[in-house]
């Protein structure tokens, strides 16, 4: 009986651990395999430690910026072992980036500032990486013209990350509602921005302006999705019908793999490969000529899905409209 009781206790404890870990994730629909197998378990342990010592998610995000920028600095060197140190630093930065969101969900300490910081962290990492690769390439004999693909790839990365993040949050909005999504819209953000003053709220107003521009960029590239979201918010103020949730998830979930491809893991695996081959400059052209077409395809498919549901909602009675 004693052994049985102990076994039951162990099983219960393990089940609770699994449940707590799963609650720290956004959704299996939007998680990438490498994240679930590697980054999320590491991030979860970091999040538990940070919760124990009282560290906030925003502090974790700021620390990740230092490790990510350090990675870029280490990629400037042509010494492969220095580059490996940079790779480990970047992997740890991304583990911290995973941990800040998991910590926020575990402690229910979510904030818009945290979301803005989280998005900006990756930009700081890759600004450092792009600058380092440009300077490294010039040391290897390239002219200053290498800055052209470096800047173009950087701009591409900003749009790719913004749209991938946006489509993930749209998916979460439809399957979990506002409580499970960080989906914002420029109309609400504009109102909040207008309430701030430059004299009294300079820092927050600057951050709010940056985030407002970021959101407007996301909306600019998704016009049909904006029409769908507008009609959904108008007609389903008390919550989405269950059959709409099921139908949207079934049709939209296959698109989540494209958001993963143009995010962190794919680009970094190829970046590491070209660093090992001492051909880091190829990373810029991979970003421009491989990831950008995937971005375009992803946006077009998402617009098709959005248009499909917009027509069904506005012309039919299937969803109780």
Automatic annotation (TrEMBL):
GO cellular component, one term: membrane
Gene Ontology biological process terms, A to Z: phospholipid biosynthetic process
Keyword match Transmembrane: yes
GO molecular function terms listed in the Swiss-Prot or TrEMBL record: phosphotransferase activity, for other substituted phosphate groups
Signal peptide segment: none
Keywords: Membrane, Transferase, Transmembrane, Transmembrane helix
TM annotation in the entry: 46-74, 144-167
Protein's name in the database: CDP-alcohol phosphatidyltransferase family protein
Native source species: Dyadobacter luteus
